[in-house]
């Protein structure tokens, strides 16, 4: 999920992947996945993906919210790119 951006198999539209809003007696649940890894060039990369699962009218709706890719550039400065600038899935894979 953190690298590919797609839900796991049999996760029924996010319902079984993220805490079911009916369990917490709310209409929505926000979640976040963070992954930190090293590239083959020993560069540290952090991926942050935020999601929202809502339950209304007897239907679940899964939404991707903000997605960030954090890394350092050649000058060792922290660079943060959000999903409105690039396709995070393509950059990670």
Q: Could you explain the architecture of this structure?
A:
It is a single chain. This protein is mainly beta. Helix content is 5%, strand content 46%. It is built from 1 helix and 4 strands; from the N terminus they run ββββα. A 4-stranded antiparallel beta sheet has the order 1-2-3-4, with no helix packed on it. The longest helix has 5 residues, at 88-92. It starts with 27 loop residues before the first strand and ends with a helix.
Quick summary of this structure?
By secondary structure, this protein is mainly beta. The protein contains one helix and four strands.
Mean pLDDT, as a whole number? 78
Quaternary organisation of the protein chains: single chain
How can the largest sheet be summarized?
Answer: 4 strands, antiparallel
Low-confidence stretches: none
First CA to last CA: what distance? 12 Å
| Record field, number of beta strands | 4
- The secondary-structure class comes to mainly beta
**SSE string, helix = H, strand = E?**
EEEEH
Please describe the structure with a list of short key phrases separated by commas or semicolons.
mainly beta; four-stranded antiparallel β-sheet; 93 residues
Protein topology:
Blueprint: E1 28-38, E2 44-56, E3 59-72, E4 78-82, H1 88-92
Antiparallel strand pairs: 1-2, 2-3, 3-4
């Amino acid at each position: 999920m953190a690298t590919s951006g797609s839900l796991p198999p049999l996760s029924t539209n996010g319902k079984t992947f993220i805490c079911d809003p009916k369990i917490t007696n709310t209409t929505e649940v926000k979640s976040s996945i963070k992954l930190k890894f090293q590239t083959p060039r020993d560069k540290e990369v952090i991926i942050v993906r935020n999601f929202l699962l809502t339950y209304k009218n007897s239907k679940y709706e899964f939404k991707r919210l903000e997605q960030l890719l954090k890394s350092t550039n050649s000058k060792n400065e922290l660079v943060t790119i959000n999903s409105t600038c690039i396709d995070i899935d393509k950059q990670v894979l």
